[in-house]
Amino acid sequence: MNTAKNTHTIGIDLGDKSHETCTLNAEGEIIERTTLLNNQPELIRFSKANRGATLIMEAGCHSPWISRLFNQRTGTRITQLLNRPSFNEV
Questions:
Q1: Are 70 and 43 in contact (CB under 8 A)?
Q2: Which of 10, 33, 36, 71 is most solvent-facing, going by the fewest CB within 10 Å?
Q3: How many CB atoms lie within 10 A of CB 2?
Q4: Model-level pTM greater than 0.85?
Q5: In the CATH scheme, what is the code of domain 9-82?
Q6: How large is the average pLDDT for residues 37-45?
Q7: Strand order in the sheet with 30-37
Q8: Using CB atoms within 10 A of its CB, is residue 69 exposed (0-12), middle (13-18) or buried (19+)?
Q9: Is the CB of residue 20 less than 8 Å from the CB of residue 35?
Q10: Is the pLDDT of residue 46 over 50?
Q11: Across the strands, what pairs with 35?
């Protein structure tokens, strides 16, 4: 049984049809980029494969259900939800 702690950080850019991910190792180096389809089976597979990683995603229309899915189905927790500033805030 592998008990090593997952020290990866994964950023997820949510889209309507697919999501782009970027995985960083503990040193902050990019180690993987992937595209995920926006469906439950694919997101569950991704979450299980990256159990224990820190997941960061933007706040938007898909983030509530995806956060719940990761948490309920695999125990993965989203540690931060980030809002992109609107043009009026810049």
A1: yes
A2: 33
A3: 4
A4: no
A5: 3.30.420.40
A6: 93
A7: 30-37, 18-24, 9-13, 54-58, 78-82
A8: middle
A9: yes
A10: yes
A11: 20
